[in-house]
Design a protein that fits this description.
The chain is of the alpha/beta class and 193 residues long. The protein is 38% helix and 16% strand.
Length: 193
């Protein structure tokens, strides 16, 4: 499940689907969800619309406003929500906190672990200080960091031929599970404990 169908989230969801994964994109914007469901990208990025269309047609990519439905089959939840700058220069982490709480509310209905990977632009420590508490420190939750390195106008290219793949956390199996999402791409993962 990819939470957030903005710039990072939609590119991530579509490209992961193109790598053979079944992906559910989740967003509160019905317009973004409708675009993806219709096989269109919700914004312009070179190469993205063709991937969205192909993956929708193949049945590997879907979009929804229903977080519970997206999480029902998910083993990994990628947080790709916005973290806009505040007036004082800090990052607004309210979207990260809100989506983490939303995921946490659905953990009680799970019978298997869920790896929550923070892909949004955040400061070091956000996973431990914001995401983990918002998930209620649930025993089925595993939290890792998986920062994105996508440039606007070259995001699809950057995803498919990354210069760097970083996965951080304190649970090696979860880190390897997230790194495995990118298997086959021309990059060796860098694990940070």
């Amino acid at each position: 499940a990819v939470f957030g169908l903005g710039y990072v989230g939609c590119v991530t969801a579509a490209c992961l689907a193109a790598r053979g994964h079944r992906v559910a994109g989740v967003d509160t914007s019905e317009m973004k969800v409708a675009c993806v469901e219709a096989g269109r990208a919700p914004f312009y990025e070179p190469g993205l619309e063709a991937i969205v269309a192909a993956e929708r047609q193949a049945g590997r990519l879907r979009a929804t406003v229903d977080a519970e439905a997206a999480l029902a089959e998910a083993d990994v939840a990628l947080l790709c929500v916005g973290t806009p700058s505040e007036r004082n220069g800090n990052l607004d982490l309210s979207y990260i906190r809100r989506v983490s709480e939303q995921i946490g509310a659905h953990l009680e209905r799970r019978t298997r672990p869920l790896v929550v990977a923070v892909r949004s632009t955040v400061f070091p420590g956000t996973a431990e200080e914001v995401v983990w508490p918002a998930l209620g420190r649930h025993p089925l939750a595993r939290v890792v960091s998986n920062p994105e390195f996508l440039r606007e106008g070259q995001a699809v290219e950057d995803f498919l031929a990354p210069s760097l793949l970083v996965v951080g956390g304190d649970d090696r199996a979860s880190m390897e599970q997230v790194a495995g999402l990118y298997a086959g791409l021309p990059v060796e993962p860098c694990f940070v404990a």
